[in-house]
Amino acid sequence: MRSPVWTIRGSLTRKLYWSIAAASFCLWIVAWWAATALQLVDPLFLPGPGAVVRRFDLWLRDGGLLKDAGISIFRVTAGFLLSAAVALPLSLFIGAYRPVRAFFEPLLEFARYLPAVAFVPMVLLWTGIGESSKILVIWIGTFFQMVIMLSEDVGRVPMPQVEAARTLGASGREVVILVLLRSAMPAMFDTLRITLGWAWTYLVVAELVAANSGLGYAILKAQRFLQTDRIFVGIIVIGLIGLGTDQALRWVHRRLFPWAGVRS
Amino acid sequence: MNQTLIVQGLCKWFSTSAGRFDALSDVSFGVAAGEFVAIVGASGCGKSTLLRIIAGLEQPSSGEVLVDRRAIAGPGCDRAMVFQDYSLYPWLTVLENIRFSLRLGSRRRGANSAQVQNAAERSVLLMELMGLTRVRDAHPHELSGGMRQRVAIARALLSKPQFLLMDEPFGALDAQTREVMHDLILHIVALERPTIVFITHDVEEAVYLADRIIVMAPGPGRIDSVWPIALPPALERTQDLKRSPAFLETVHEILGRVRATSGLQSDLDALRRLTGHAVRAVTTIM
To answer: Which residues of A touch B89 (CB under 8 A)?
Structure first.
């Protein structure tokens, strides 16, 4: 008899889930450590965990790491919030009114295939090399996808919810605010959580090209001096920040919308 | 007869890739105040479309719907609708769902605090009538299908609508729950006297509840026949009635009409060919 955890879409206790997740992290760290300790690869190509931890400590202590992480977090947050501030109301209108959808949707489908990375030279031309250039790159990278995904969230609100409100005497504005927005909110929150991950990708792109601070810039600088351990620290710190915010947002989601399931 | 709802020469067609599809063709009838009209018919007869047009959720291609001799223009809170499913607001509790219409400007405007107070009290009474008091703070996903439909009905009844439009409201429920809901509806009919237009594919349900049954036929959707039902007053009807000869006879006749108009029948010859084919196939292999 096969264990129920292995039936397709079977169930798993929370404890077992996190045990497996922790084991997966440990496995990769051990494999990494073994590969470097047994000198299977040149430490220049793959610095060992020890070297990375030492570099992390050093970088943390000279104060540079927190400063770099801080400015990167600021850029991601600013770019992401600016994206969301425009995308949320726009997607609500796209999801609610067909002519608005017709006006924006094909345009957005086109725009989302424009490579944000290729915009970097134009962005530098438009905004210079100040903070706004990084924020704008993140905005270009996240905004179009975000609007499309958010408007789909609005579009997935069950029609009977909308029609029930209409037959109860709701005005168009009330349907949009009291039903569409409210009903789509958990899905929209999830979409924002997922797009926040993409914002980090574009942050690194922006900082690799035009910056003199931030985690992406630190990685680029480390590349020049062949400090591969520092590159690793930069990458891992970004990963940990991402993992942390993602888990925090999942927690907030559960607290805000106990009536809705989390999309994974 | 004093008809408060009049459906006049209603047509509805859609353009499809295969040409014009007629969902409704010249449908006309009237409903008297306090009357319970059930509309039955095979799938594709346009009964849901008809109800949605009465609710104002869809526009007819021609014809009109009159309420108190005035043509309707879109949905209005005089015509509350109960849907088959998924119409409750999952983020609101049972009581908040029932009180949803109190959040709307169209209700608050011109209402004094006494009226709002009155509606709030009525929501509690409706909750009691529906047997929902125990779950007043639960969210819809914690409720059974039958409970959810009770919330939907209470929400629709809150502002004493002139009409209650029900689109297969018990279609997703199991047989036992449905029977309980039937008696609940009869109680509401006896107490509140709303005018009801009720869509169902369950003829027995229609006969048990309605004063009059309209049978619709598909291709194009139209009225086939109208059947007055003379059962005892709502509060005197019991489940035993469903076993009485007169009841069964009526159900049988109407069901016969629905079946005759559906254009669906099992093809015995095709079945024989299928069976014969299987036998031959087996013989060949052996």
So the answer is: 161, 179, 182-183
Residue A161 in contact with partner chain B when CB distance is under 8 A:
yes
CATH homologous superfamily for B3-78+161-285?
P-loop containing nucleotide triphosphate hydrolases (3.40.50.300)
Chain A residue with the nearest C-alpha to that of B99: A168
CA–CA separation, A15 and A23 (whole Å): 12
Say yes or no: A169 contacts chain B, CB-CB below 8 A. yes
Which H or E run includes B227? strand B222-228
Q: Can you list the domains of chain A with their CATH numbers?
A: 47-256 (1.10.3720.10)
Per-domain residue ranges for chain B?
3-78+161-285, 87-160
Q: Are the Cβ atoms of B75 and A166 closer than 8 angstroms?
A: yes
The predicted-structure confidence for A183-239, as pLDDT tens digits, reads as follows: 999 999 999 999 999 999 899 888 887 788 899 999 999 989 999 999 999 999 999
Tokens 């999309």, located at residue: A263
CA distance A94 to chain B (A): 20
pLDDT at residue A2 in the model: 63
What is the rounded CA–CA span in Å between residue A231 and residue A222?
6
Q: Which of A80, A195, A93, A203 shows the shortest CA–CA distance to A146?
A: A195
- Chosen for mutation from B104, B135, B148 (greatest number of chain A CBs closer than 10 Å) is B104
CB contact under 8 A, B100 and A257: no
Left (φ > 0), alpha (ψ -120 to 50) or beta: where does B226 sit? beta
Please name which of B253, B199, B205 lies closest in space to residue B221, comparing C-alpha atoms: B199
Q: Give per-residue pLDDT as tens, B77-124.
A: 889 999 988 899 999 999 999 999 998 887 666 667 788 888 899 999
**CA distances from residue A105 to A108, A190, B14 in whole angstroms, order as listed:** 5, 21, 25
Contacts of A258 in chain B (CB under 8 A): 139
Measure the CA–CA gap between B83 and A163, rounded to whole angstroms. 9
B87 to A183: CB separation less than 8 angstroms, yes or no: no
Distance CA A238, CA A97 (A): 39
DSSP category for residue B90? T
Size of interface A-B (CB pairs under 8 A): 82
Chain B residues near any Cβ of chain A (below 8 Å): 55-57, 74-77, 79-81, 83-91, 100-101, 103-107, 139-141, 152, 155-156, 159, 165
Residues 6+ apart with CB under 8 A from B8: B28, B63, B64, B65, B66
**What are residue B79's DSSP bridge partners?**
B163
- Closest approach of chain A CAs to the CA of B82, in angstroms? 7
Q: Is the separation of the CB atoms in B110 and B131 below 8 Å?
A: no
- Its pTM stands at 0.86
